[in-house]
Design brief:
With 127 residues, the protein is α+β, with helices and mostly antiparallel strands. It has five helices and four strands. A four-stranded antiparallel beta sheet has the order 2-3-1-4. It is globular and about 45 Å long.
Length: 127
Amino acid sequence: MKTTGYQTKQYAIPTKRYCQTLDLIDDPKLIEAYVERHGESRAWPEIREGIRSVGILEMELYILGNRLFMIVETPLDFDWDEAFTRLATLPRQQEWEDYMSVFQNAAAHATSAEKWKQMERIFRLYD
């Protein structure tokens, strides 16, 4: 467990953040394989390029047990639905979704937008 925290990027433009969750199948071997496939050397370059090409500045995944938490940072004018509709049409994107689906507690051929559930912020340290 990392106890020193995670450094965040600073952008020259105003940004917004989306937080999502998805559950993996609760099987330690499957979870280990899922984590390995998201390692820097194992994630497909086309998927990383596609994510950036639709306007996403940063995407992070965190895990606790079989629960995933994703943080997506975007410019203020980012349109989530439009971007993920476009992302689903990019080369190898559906192949990646199918490749990951064996680990995820979701419909087998669901798109990323169908699998990941948007979370609602309920607290922050208000100014």
